[in-house]
Every structure is written in structure tokens, then in C-alpha cells.
UniProtKB/TrEMBL annotation:
Gene Ontology molecular function: phenylacetyl-CoA 1,2-epoxidase activity
UniProt region (Disordered), positions on chain: 83-105
EC number: 1.14.13.149
Tree of life domain: Archaea
Coiled-coil intervals: none
Stated name of the protein: 1,2-phenylacetyl-CoA epoxidase subunit B
Length: 105
């Protein structure tokens, strides 16, 4: 039986896949994982999971995020030249003129 092994280097970090072991049962798989994958690098914990218990959700089954255009979130998506700057200056001038007319100087 094949067991997939996931290693956590430090407390609070994610477990990442580091390999697999061949073992007849869970206890042997844990021992083999500790020997093969836990002693070479700093290790806080190991997850040992039967390969057939791991499920996959593919993009053919579910539409994952990232399909919507959200380029407006990045400054590089804006054109900094053109009429936009002129409109801002004109608006500021209009606001200053209105304040003078109200006597807000």
C-alpha cells in the first residue's frame, strides 16, 4: 500500500507534500515516514495518508476563482496620461471658485 507523506517544518506553517512510503499498515507507514522524510530536514510533524484517500477537485469539475477581470486593483492598469488629470484640475478649480463665492476663504 502506498502512503503519501506531508511535512510541516515549523509550528504554524503549512504541511507540504514531501513524498511517499510503501507500507502494509498505518503504524509502519508512520515509522517509515519518520525515518525517510522526518530526519533529513527540520520537522515539526508529518501527515501520513493512504493514497486512495486523497481526493482531487479539477478545473473540469469546478470553476475556480480568477476568472473575473479585477485589473482595476493594480495601479499598472490605469493610464496616467490623458484627460483624467485635466478633469481633476478643472474640478479643483470649480471647487475653489465655489468656496470664494460662498466666502469660505
Amino acid at each position: 500500500m502506498i502512503w503519501e507523506v506531508f511535512r510541516q517544518a515549523k509550528t504554524g506553517e503549512y504541511h507540504t507534500h514531501c513524498g511517499n512510503v510503501h507500507a502494509p499498515d498505518r503504524e509502519m507507514a508512520k515509522q517509515f515516514a519518520a525515518i525517510q522524510h522526518g530526519r533529513r530536514k527540520p520537522t515539526n510533524s508529518l501527515w501520513v495518508v493512504p493514497r486512495e484517500e486523497i481526493g482531487e477537485v479539477g478545473s473540469d469539475e469546478v470553476a475556480f476563482g480568477g476568472t473575473t477581470d479585477k485589473s482595476y486593483r493594480w495601479a499598472t492598469a490605469y493610464n496616467t496620461t490623458g484627460t483624467d488629470a485635466r478633469e481633476v484640475v478643472e474640478s479643483e478649480d470649480e471647487q475653489a471658485t465655489a468656496e470664494k463665492q460662498r466666502g469660505d476663504d
